[in-house]
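Q: My collaborator sent me two sequences in one message, no labels, and asked for predicted structures for both. Can we handle them in order? The first one she listed is below.
A: Yes, handling them in the order given. First sequence, followed by its structure tokens:
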Amino acid sequence: MSVPPSKHLVKRSIDNPAHPKVHQWLQKHFLFIYSFSSFQDDNWGETTTAVTGTSELSISQEEVVGLGKGIQDRTQGFRRYLPLAVGSCVGLLVLATPLVFLLLPAVMWPDRLQVCGAACEGLFLSISFKLLILLVAVWALFLRPSRACLPRVCVYRAFLITLTLLLTMSYWLFYGVRILDAQDDDYHGIVQFAVSLVDSQLFVHYLAVVLLELRQLQPCYSVCVIRSTDGETRHYNIGQLSIQRAALSILEYYYRDFPLHNPALLSASKHRAAKHLAGLKVYNVDVGSSANYLTASRAMVTAAGKRKDSAHNELYYEEADYERRVRKRRARLVVAVEEAFTHVRRMKKEDERATPSDIMDVREAALAIFPSMARALQKYLRTTRRQHCHSMESIQKHLAFCLVNNMSPKAFLEAYLVPGPTLQYGPERWMADQWTLVSEASVTSGIKEGTEFLLKCLDFSLAITIKGIPYIRLTEEYIDPKSHKFLLLLQSETSV
């Protein structure tokens, strides 16, 4: 067992390397050893001596990041299912309370209860159907799976849950004081009390439908969404929503309407800009005198200016060449796909006359004709810089889908010739868990005229601007139907 050295021995070992045992002990345990006498000094931060090293129990930075990511994933899972758990508990409390109101008197003082007549039994039927309707309504509105994890709690949902709990607790207090303590024998009145609770809960659910669903249906604002990298812009109309709910709706529109963000298309413009800026840099290290230096500098600046004036010509010819190469690759791809589909149709006609054992499966047919178009498709995707958006497995699966449903070659090519929305591609392209809402105002506050906020992702961001829909005033202009009538007069005399 190793014994730590005293403070004097440690200080001497630090100042004088004549104690090899102490140094071995320090290298073995790798502790921070501070000079005890330095704490007596006012400038202890400057005179402190420390010996550092790598501990046997140390972890790497990647492990620390992985640990934080695991904790974050568990927290996100907890936050995702927390509203569903709270809604389930409140729903069970709401549905169980009326039944408990009816069962407690029959269990605690059954001998003192009055006989339940026909009217009382009719109330049993009423409360049964009302509870069934309330159960379906609560399931449809509150027990739906959550679409997103918002940064803050929804104000209206918190208000409705609080109102429901207050209502239930109020009925419980009244029931405990006036019925349980007094052991009321009027069972008909107890049943009416339970029916009134169910009616109140139905009205609260109606209020929830108005606040959570109906209030946001009428469009009140126009939203402008701009993607920061390529300037792709869309406009949408939304209703009365909070900032975080508006951000959620905009992201749903984004995945549906915006084309997939492709950073490879932006690298070409960045390369061209860097090349142009590199052409403007002037270096002159061989000139001796100042006069010669100024003359050479003017010549270089003039050459750089001419290069700058010709930059638009370079851009024009570069874009023209790119469009020419894209049209060429596209024509080759269209011809290759049409020939492959023609071959499939010919094989299908031959399979009609073949035996069932020789008929080829659709998956096998897709694998058989894919090599004939793979090279042309790969070159086209590389030219358009979209090769990372489509894997070989997804292309073969799409080809098999088109063959099963007897689609045309144009229908197969549409997914590759035209960039589709983000949801058309795999989940690895969605980046659904990388969005950050940036807003000066509170995210739980409602949107209004001039509200601006930002949705940041890994490679780009969405800038959102809110504008109110103007108040439209229509006037009516009446047109008399008789004003469209005219009279045709014919002369009585005709020429012979």
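Q: And the one she listed second?
A: Here it is, processed independently of the first:
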Amino acid sequence: MAKGKDVRVTIILECTSCVRNDIKKESSGISRYITQKNRHNTPSRLELRKFCPYCYKHTIHGEIKK
């Protein structure tokens, strides 16, 4: 029997520097990654360093709402 809330949830990580530099219009989009996290181990928002193809470097990607 399954419980109401799953422990492992799917989240979206979005590049924080692309969002801040939206005024420049140098980048043609916003880098997003889809991953999973365990609610019990990481109850706060997740931030990971991932490669952004629009910034051409490794930047911090933060968790966003769906």
